[in-house]
Amino acid sequence: MLVANMSGRRTEAACAKRGEQFQCPSCQSEVILKRGQIVIAHFAHRAGAKCAWAKGESRQHLESKQTAVEALRCRGLQAEVEYYVGSLFGDRRADVMTWSPKGQAVAIEMQNSNIGLDLLYSRAKSYVEAGIAQIWIPFIREKILEGAIVREDDSLVIEKYSPRPFEKKIYYDLFGRVIWMYDANRKKIWRCKMEDFYLWMSGSEYRDENGDEIFREGGYYKSKRWVKLLLEKPYCFDDVKLVVRNIENFDRERVNFWPIGKYAEFVVP
Known about the structure:
Elements: E1 3-6, E2 9-12, E3 22-23, E4 30-34, E5 42-45, H1 59-74, E6 79-84, E7 93-99, E8 105-111, H2 117-129, E9 133-138, H3 142-146, E10 149-150, E11 156-161, H4 165-173, E12 179-183, E13 188-201, E14 204-207, E15 213-216, E16 219-231, E17 241-246, E18 262-267
């Protein structure tokens, strides 16, 4: 956790001082401020706590939220980390919440772990009902990047990538088939596109139910599981700007998963 309450006020771990008393915003139990050389400053529940917010987070996830919120603030935008949203169920925090100069709230979800499509839809619907625009940023897994091909322009190509179901929903349904993915090592985001991947199927011979001999020619066919992932050069959060769009303008036959409402995307100025 990057945020706790101190005397009823939100306090971020980056600004907190040892010796104070801090409470979890959800269960109100005491939490401990931890500072180390490996993991950034954060709050932790005591052992045995049953709070839903007591689940530990990876160092990469904590850093991604802190990196995003600091970049937004440097651009003069109001931004809060782990912002409480009452309409959400379960974990009611948006990873990062920011507001446009005109006051439009935008939730940025840094999605490190896999998320089921039912939960993805429920959270998306809750944001829409609250009038909050949203953008989902999956993490690009480190092992995947290790096998990437580096091009002359510093872009990367992953020849054989298996996107998670929620990544497919983000990519194929929103904003012209582009997905932004977070690189935990560089602390930057990649602008990514997916291309079809083809597998070779050898020719085969077999007999059908009538005993007739059938020959099937070999050839390439489009994979349902794999794609080729193209990663444009990585950007810092302050290299891009957030743009809010309304999903009502989309083709509803193509975009039939996402609730109708406001969504956000990063664009390169």
